[in-house]
Amino acid sequence: MTIAIGSDHAGFELKQQIINYLAENGMDYTDYGAYGSARVDYPDYGVLVGKKVGAGEHEKGIIICGTGIGISISANKMKGARAALCTSDYMAEMARKHNNANIIALGGRTTTAELAMRMIRIFLDTEFEGGRHATRVAKIHSLTKR
Ligand code: RB5
Questions:
Q1: Which SS3 state, helix, strand or coil, does residue 145 take?
Q2: Residue bearing the CA closest to ligand 1, atom 10
Q3: Inter-residue long-range contacts of 114-120, CB under 8 Å, 24+ positions, other chains counted
Q4: Domain annotation for the chain: domains and CATH numbers
Q5: Ligand 1 mean position to 63 CA, how many Å?
Q6: What distances in angstroms separate CA 119 from CA 44, 64, 67, 92, 115, one per listed residue?
């Protein structure tokens, strides 16, 4: 599995911790920035990761801003992107099982590194349940055509 990761300045520190975690666990990732803690605009990074994952260039994505809100809104504007802002183990699990989310969004100012790693592990390891949930996810994507 290849993972795309991106953040703004407010998510930079947590992004670096996540990158260390991915590397230590032998996971294949591409870091799309930001590459430092200088102030940047979160939509730029949400769009970048959203586009790559939405187009299938990476199976999964991880995006981080201060709260995870702005960057998830931005990523979800990209075709094929399903970014879920998660703040608990349960949300990370359900984002996969019911929503087939392909991007997890996290808050660098709201989530501890320990919780972030746990949610990422769950997110990467949990399968989509399909069935009635697939019909609903298809409905979400049909909305973009309106
Ligand atoms: C940056 O200060 C902050 O607004 C941003 O990281 C994010 O939290 C927006 O949703």
A1: coil
A2: 70
A3: 115/88, 115/89, 116/14, 116/17, 116/18, 117/17, 117/18, 117/21, 118/89, 118/92, 119/86, 119/88, 119/89, 119/91, 119/92, 120/18, 120/21, 120/62, 120/92
A4: 2-145 (3.40.1400.10)
A5: 12
A6: 24, 13, 15, 6, 6
Mean pLDDT by 10 residues, the chain (146 residues): 97 98 98 98 98 98 98 97 98 98 98 98 98 96 78
Strands 2-7, 60-65: pairing is: parallel
Q: Which residues are catalytic?
A: 65, 98
Angle at 128 between CA 60 and CA 51, to 5 degrees: 30
Length of the chain: 146
Given ligand 1 and candidates 15, 40, 71, which is best to mutate, with the most ligand atoms within 8 Å of its CB?
71
Q: Note the pLDDT of residue 36.
A: 97
Both structure tokens of 9: 């300045």
